Amino acid sequence: MSCDVLFNIILRGINLSELVYRNEIVTSALTPDFKENITSRRTMVYKTLIDPAVARMAAEKNKHKLFNKFLFRLNNPAEIEFVSLEKYYEPYVTVNGKYLIDYFRKCAYAVRVDKEVTEVILFNRTFMPGQGPHPTSSEHSFKLEGEERIIRNTQAFLLLNRNGEESKISEFPSAPSEENPQELIQTFKIPEIAPNMDVEAMRKKIAQRPSDINRIVNEVFEIDERIEIYRPIFRVTYKSPKIGKEAYLEFDGVTSKLIRQKENALTATIKNVISKLKMII
Hints:
Layout: H1 3-11, E1 33-38, E2 42-45, H2 52-62, E3 68-69, E4 72-73, E5 81-113, E6 120-122, E7 125-127, E8 140-161, H3 181-187, H4 197-206, E9 215-240, E10 245-252, E11 258-262, H5 265-280
Parallel strand pairs: 1-9, 2-9
Antiparallel strand pairs: 3-4, 5-8, 5-9, 6-7, 9-10, 10-11
């Protein structure tokens, strides 16, 4: 084997001192070191930055969007009656996680030699060249088997709703926190998020071991930030005496932005039918 071949092997990342050979894979005495560092969760309740009157005004401007029916649109404000305005808090959790895995995987390198070569001696071992996977009249090869060491770092930042589903961070408001969050949580009977929901969501997101692991040197799963955030929301409910149904609009208590509207089941079904008919037409 020429010096160029050896040089190319080194360039490809082979540690010659760690090379092992067919049917002679050496098992390291290293014991996998798994570390898991999970910080405790902090609680934050956003201050409500808009007055309830602002939410009511925004609702009056948008109530015509409710109670739409097939072949008939109930958009006359006089036909839609106010029922109630209430504030509640919707829980979210942010989590920042990191995952590192340092491991070895098995590898094999085909080393090409001239067709005249009948044997190769490397590291006091003898290799008998054979035809490569795509043999030609001028090519012979032998295989070097060993391990490659790989270090992977992965990290992520997630915003999750109470069900553990990812929410869009770009659409989530920022606001100062209330000074006594626990009192508000008790007053409004805010539902709690499952204690380890965010940890498991992060673990599923980033802490996945590669499928080609032969042995692990070091593995670390870390969560260095967990914040449970309670977002104020105003719900304004209306009713339509004409059809005997109620529906509501919800506005962000920080920005006054309309974030949700809930229509009755009949309306939702009709809209779905209309949408499918438009696709057919």
